[in-house]
Specification:
binds nicotinamide-adenine-dinucleotide; Aldehyde Dehydrogenase, Chain A, domain 2; seven-stranded mixed sheet; five-stranded parallel sheet; 2 domains; Aldehyde Dehydrogenase, Chain A, domain 1; alpha/beta; about 20% strand; aldehyde dehydrogenase (NAD+) activity
Length: about 500
């Protein structure tokens, strides 16, 4: 694929998806593709004052939208899902170009957007509260759920469109407006999502203006969203470093936070594991998306009785995996996002070596693109969990460690800062149930006989500890996007006070 072709194809895709050329030409923020390293566009960024005024407009949109019945709001999200179905091939391709995901993952990311729209449409008729028994005769107590306000969304480069949709679809059916600050590394896909949303709005016909807006800019623009008093909830996806800044700032003004931060995910391969299955799950979890998923498998504890069976097979898979342009369907591992990611990977590997790590792969791969960063995924046999193993490095490095005692493996599994995703490979019921129990995996996602990555939208997604504690997507994650009121109605002729308190006035 020659370089001119990618830039030209990008412009064609943007035009097909309905993005105005003026939004990505002649601006002050360059966007690049990790596929070839070439520049794709120059986007116009918003100033802090413009961002503030957009948030004011979003607040006005919220005040109208919250009065639209929820099932009607669901109709807009249904139309968004339809538009995404129509745009799937083009948007998926744009994701591959801008984030470097292989073709099936680019398309899969758009499918995830469609899935959450379907989920949210159903949810729009299920935003229910409880009726609660009251101790007072002739009274009724219940919960009602109301729209919250402007929902701020900050997203990372590695899920450039799905994360927006997880938040947007729920926020919209819950009666909120949305303002999105996408990653500065993937702004074009954000413009495309906004154009697709605008199409849905046009068909819907009666949505308030500025219901969904995009703030193009760097982290300073994200900070405007974080600090603005008219934004009661910010859902921020990115590194733990980002969360350490954003979390306290939101807390200071008593705003809500959904923090979806870094992961340092692990798997345990037990003596009874189905090794064929484990091998495939490990390969996808560790090498898929070039190791750039928050749920990527980064640490593997293998029981000593199966270590020598599994390791040679794993090494073979690492040595033979196809690396190359994500725009060619034969590649399973695409590029790293940029040079900083490559440098971070090399630094972690050097640190692992210092701690006694034996490395297979990890070097730069020649994909015929001098300005792009393709690597061979690294498999590192570690004598113990130390040094870089304890931190997330956002690159395809899998640290493998041998264990003999299940309790020790479990304890090492939990002995890192992050708490996002985890897996156990076992056919032993006791081990599996222990892993899922109160003193098992301490992660927000704990799986048995499947890998750490590739979550479905039906479950609540998120992690504990330094992953931030936020939950998005399915289950009852919608509750974070609404405010709850407890209502007590007295339909009697008396006024009994709770807890037997008396306060009788003449
Ligand atoms: P990043 O933290 O560099 O940036 C993420 C976003 O935050 C960007 O839009 C950036 O502009 C913004 N940002 C950064 N600092 C900010 C600040 N102080 N205030 C406001 N906004 C700020 O992350 P990245 O390199 O784009 O993505 C990779 C990271 O994201 C990894 O750590 C990965 O694990 C994590 N991630 C987590 C999840 C999850 O659901 N837990 C999902 C995807 C990615």
């Amino acid at each position: 694929m020659n370089n001119m072709t990618v830039a030209k194809e990008t412009r064609d895709l943007l035009s097909k998806l309905g993005v105005a050329e003026s939004l990505y030409t002649g601006g002050n923020m360059a966007s690049y593709t990790p596929v070839t390293g070439e520049k794709l566009a120059d986007l116009k960024t918003v100033t802090a004052d413009e961002a503030k005024s957009m948030i004011d407009k979003a607040d006005a949109a919220f005040r109208e939208w919250r009065l639209v019945p929820a099932p009607k709001r669901g109709e807009l999200v249904r139309l968004l899902g339809e538009e995404l179905r129509t745009a799937k091939a083009d948007l998926g391709r744009l994701v591959s170009i801008e984030a470097g995901k292989i073709t099936s993952e680019g398309l899969g990311e758009v499918q995830e957007m469609i899935d959450i729209c379907d989920f949210a449409v159903g949810l729009s008729r299920q935003l229910y509260g409880l009726t609660i028994a009251t101790e007072r005769p002739g009274h009724r107590m219940m919960e009602t759920w109301h729209a919250l306000g402007v929902v701020g969304i900050i997203s990372a480069f590695n899920f450039p469109v799905a994360v927006w949709s997880w938040n947007a679809a729920l926020a919209l059916v819950c009666g909120n407006s949305i303002v999105w600050k996408p990653s500065e590394k993937t702004p074009l896909t954000a413009l495309a999502c906004q154009a697709i949303f605008d199409k849905a709005v046009k068909r819907f016909g009666e949505a308030p203006q500025n219901l969904s807006q995009v703030l193009i800019g760097d982290r300073a623009i994200g900070e405007v969203l974080v600090d603005h008093h008219l934004v009661p909830l910010v859902s921020a996806t990115g590194s733990t470093r980002m969360g350490r800044d954003v979390g306290p700032r939101l807390a200071k003004r008593f705003a809500r936070a959904i923090l979806e931060l870094g992961g340092n995910n692990a798997g345990i391969v037990c003596p009874s594991a189905d090794l064929d299955m484990a091998l495939r799950a490990i390969a996808f979890g560790a090498m898929g998306t070039a190791g750039q998923r928050c749920t990527t498998l980064r640490r593997l504890f293998v029981h000593e009785s199966v270590y020598d069976k599994l390791l040679p097979r794993l090494k073979k898979a690492y040595e033979s995996v196809s690396i190359g342009s994500p725009l060619e369907t034969s590649a399973l591992v695409g590029p790293l996002i940029d040079k900083a990611a490559f440098d971070g990977m090399q630094k972690a590997l050097a640190g692992a070596k210092e701690h006694g790590g034996k490395i297979t792969g990890g070097d730069r791969f020649d994909a015929g693109q001098a300005n792009a960063y393709y690597v061979r995924p690294a498999l590192v046999e570690m004598p113990e969990q130390a040094g870089p193993v304890l931190e997330e490095t956002f690159a395809p490095i899998l640290y493998v460690m041998k264990y003999s005692d299940f309790d020790d493996a479990l304890s090492d599994h939990n002995a890192v800062g992050a708490g996002l995703s985890s897996s156990i490979f076992t056919l032993d019921l006791r081990e599996a149930e222990r892993f899922l129990s109160a003193d098992g995996s301490d992660c927000g996602i704990a799986n048995v006989n499947i890998g750490t990555s590739g979550a479905e939208i039906g479950g609540a997604f998120g992690g504990e500890k330094e992953t931030g504690g936020g939950r998005e997507s399915g289950s009852d994650a919608w509750k974070a996007y609404m405010r709850r009121a407890t209502n007590t109605v007295n339909y009697s002729r008396a006024l009994p006070l709770a807890q037997g308190v008396s306060f009788d006035i003449e």
